[in-house]
Every structure is written in structure tokens, then in C-alpha cells.
């Protein structure tokens, strides 16, 4: 029954995909006998003559995009000057920034969240700061980061750090604060000392909640890196998208969008795996 | 009489009432517990039974009075007083063996890994859990979980065992066999036990002395009943003993009526919370013969 459900779902997915590609194909068919002449010459210069005359749509057909994707996948790591590097290299730049900013955020958020969760005083004292800082769009920090750090690459990492921080911090504090009283009582009656209690009781008890925070954070970080790189420029998949927009290369943009989605999915799956390792059934 | 192992002295718990004043849950509780003795505290919900146990465990603090161990007031939890909680309260991310090992290595931090495991296996075997060592609590039945909890408490070889309605969440059959085992283990090891329950048969099977508590608020100890059943009593056969019904009726009568009316019953009469009456219910003909 489950196998047949998987099969049916797979077929339906394929059908939806085929319908989408079909509609796309039809929408980008060359319009025959379109009135030529009433085209703005500037626009014609921009999108090439054929498209401007309506003989061919400026938007690529599915086959064009497939060819473009294949071209990128065949040679993802080429470097032909600062503004022409393979999409794999751009993705690696973005991933590097995300992982670095995320790792620093985890290194700050998890210990700090632990303290906040343990201490009602600290929780009360830090809560106003967290509540005000949390809803700020991470990109709003960018000018401040650029001004103080004076390095666009580190500023992008800082923006990733700041956006990954909050979900991990809040989930860790919540997870630690809501460890079941009876488990703490067990530790107390066994005279378990502070550090041992933290690592053997509180951390495993809060781990699933902490992992949820980490999963939310990696998702947000991957969303934000694209926008951050559009702003700071230079390298990265976000910069690549913006650069291809300036080149008006829609096929390249679509390739990048797909790859961003795939990498985001991979990151989420990796953390879901990790979450399963620390999960427990009560 | 030997020196008590642990002595509850003038214990009271009061909570501030909404809108001023105080609610006294219980007060003037005096109770010595001697080594090797199995003491059961019976009372209705709300009389503060669990609070008393938590104070004995060091998890809660009384408003007044103290618990004295070795001539000193207890200030917090101790490995000398192991607790078997109402819920099994096993750590769900550890296996049965790891749960016990966590307790054992708390008791004996200097022990090698192998020695700890050996010790744990002995106690898991004692509660008939050999073969389930590497299962997580979620893979064990309710009775098995409670067995792990019992093994965990016994494995640290405490001076005293505190049990908070340890069998209340189990079905009748499991409860019966587990009670039987606990009685066997505690008698064999001469373990000192303080247990809370509201199950009369459980108290009659397990306890040497049954302490009766009146209803809250202002709950007190009304009397102490000595178990008149023979020491080799078993759950399956103890109801055939001539002392069974006199004892059971006495306890039931207390829980049904006297626990409510105790305050009026003693009005105007002397009541010394340090020397409550000790009762030994036996059949009427046995009394007549004396």
C-alpha cells in the first residue's frame, strides 16, 4: 500500500512537472508574424534582434535552459577572470560563508542559550535585547557591518552570523529551561555535579529542541546569503544571480535558482539527519 | 529500641494563601524510622504525603521542623537516600543499563567502566531484567520501566529507600508481582524503606508499620498501625490469614471515615504528635483470649 502510494505520488509529481514544462514551452514559442518595426530600438539592442522582433521570446525555452544547465554542470569549476567563474565555485563561496557564519553563531548561541535557560535572572535581563534584535532583517545590519568591519566578505559572514543566531539562541534557552523536573530530580538525588548534569542530563534532554533551532537557522542563513551577496558583490551564488541579471542571461539565472534550491534542500536534509541522531522517545 | 536511622521532627509545610494568610498542608509531623524497617505512609491526596517524601529526599524544604540523619539536619539530596519516583523517571535517551550505570558511576566515580557495568547487571538481574539491558525506556513496558527505576535505586546501595507510590501506574497483575519482588529484596537486604501509598493492600503486604495521616489541610499523623500479618506473607495468600480482615478493616475504616473526622475526634482530648497511638489490629476472638 505504501509502495503504491509512493509510486502514485511519484507519477503525479512527474505529471505536474511535465505540465509545468509544457506550459512554459508553449508560452515561449516564437510568435509567427508578429508586427515588426514597432520595437523600441534600445530594447532591441538589449535583448538581441530576434527577440525584439518577436520572432523569439526573450525568455528562454525549457530546452534552452536545459542546455544552459548542462553547460554549467559539465564544467562547474572554471575560472575565467573575476567576473566569470563556474557556478560550482560560486556555490562553494556561498556555502563557505554560510557555514562559517553559522558555526560562529552556533558557538555563541548554544552556550549562551544554555546559560539563559538555566538562569531565570539572565533570561529576564537579556529578554528585551533578544526581542528587539530578533525581528531585525539581517540585511539591515549590512551598512553598519561594512562601515565597522570595512571588509565585504567578513560583513557577509557577519550578516549570516546575526541571522543564524536567534533561532538557535531561543531554542536552546527554551529547550534547557523546559527539561523535565523529574529528570533534574533524578540528577539531584544522585548528587550529580554541575558539569556532569549539564552534559549527561540537560544537553541530551534539550538536544532535539536545540537541533530544531539549528535547522531553522541553516534555512534562514541560506536564504540570506543570496541577498547579502547581491549587496556586497564579488563572489558567491547571490552575486552570480545579480551578475547574470545584468547580463540579462535568464537561463543562467534559472540555473542558479535551481541550484540554490538544491543546496538548501541538502543542508536541511543533513540537519534533519543529525536531529534524528539526538532524538529520543519519551 | 535502636537509634532511628532517620528522624522526622516537627515537620510542617505552609503556603501563603491568595489574599493573605497561610494554608497549612501538614504540621507537627514526628516520625522516627529505624534501620531495616519498612514504613508506609497512607493518606488521601492533598495531605502532603509527597511533600513529606520530597523533604526526606532533600528535594523540598519544610516550612518548619527538620529531618535528622546521624544527628544532623539534612540540607539537600543525598546518595544515601535513593528515590523511586511515581513515574519511572528514567532518562529516555539512555538504555536500561546506562540509566543504572549513570546512578552507579555517580556513587562510585572511581570505578572502572567494566566494574560499573558488572554492578549494574547484577541489579538488573535482581529485578529480572537480564536481556533488556540495552533497550531504551520507550521499548520497555510500564512494569519493566519501574523495575529499571528500582534497580537504579538499589544499585547505589542507599542507607534508605524512598518510594512515592511506585506501583500506582501499573496494572494489577504487574503490580502484584513487582510488590512481591520488592518485598523479597527489601527483606533479604534488610533495606530501610519509607513508602507512600494510598493502596491498603500494598501497605499491608510491604510495610512493618503503617502510618496513618489525616486529611489536609492541617494534616497530622493520627496513629501508627503495626502490621500483624506474618513476615512470610505473600500477595496471593495473605488474605487467608485471620489477621488480614481486622487489619484491613481498621485501615479502610480510617481512610473512609476517621481520616476526615479526626480533628473532631481528638477535640478536648490529649493529642501528643510525638507519641501517637500504636495499634495492633487482631481478630476479636484473639483479643478475648488474652
TrEMBL record, chain A:
GO terms for cellular component: plasma membrane. The chain crosses the membrane at residues 99-117, 155-177, 220-242, 248-267. Keywords: Cell inner membrane, Cell membrane, Ion transport, Membrane, Transmembrane, Transmembrane helix, Transport. Its main location: membrane. The keyword Nuclease does not apply. It comes from the Bacteria. It is found in: Cell inner membrane; Cell membrane. Residues 91-271 form the ABC transmembrane type-1 domain. GO terms for biological process: alkanesulfonate transmembrane transport; monoatomic ion transport. The keyword Membrane applies. One of its GO terms (molecular function) is nitrate transmembrane transporter activity. It is a multi-pass membrane protein. PANTHER family: ALKANE SULFONATE ABC TRANSPORTER-RELATED, MEMBRANE SUBUNIT, NITRATE IMPORT PERMEASE PROTEIN NRTB. Belongs to the binding-protein-dependent transport system permease family. Probably part of an ABC transporter complex. Probably responsible for the translocation of the substrate across the membrane. This is Nitrate ABC transporter, permease protein. The gene is nrtB_1.
From TrEMBL, chain B:
InterPro entries: AAA+_ATPase, ABC_transporter-like_ATP-bd, ABC_transporter-like_CS, ABC_transporter_ATP-bind, NO3_transporter_ATP-bd-like, P-loop_NTPase. The keyword Membrane applies. It is a peripheral membrane protein. It is found in: Cell membrane. Its main location: membrane. It comes from the Bacteria. Transmembrane segments: none annotated. Belongs to the ABC transporter superfamily. Keywords: ATP-binding, Cell membrane, Membrane, Nucleotide-binding, Transport. PANTHER family: NITRATE ABC TRANSPORTER ATP-BINDING PROTEIN, TAURINE IMPORT ATP-BINDING PROTEIN-RELATED. It comes from Methylopila jiangsuensis. GO terms for cellular component: plasma membrane. SMART domains: AAA. CDD domains: ABC_NrtD_SsuB_transporters. Residues 6-240 form the ABC transporter domain. NCBIfam families: ntrCD (TIGR01184). This is Nitrate/sulfonate/bicarbonate ABC transporter ATP-binding protein. One of its GO terms (molecular function) is ATP binding.
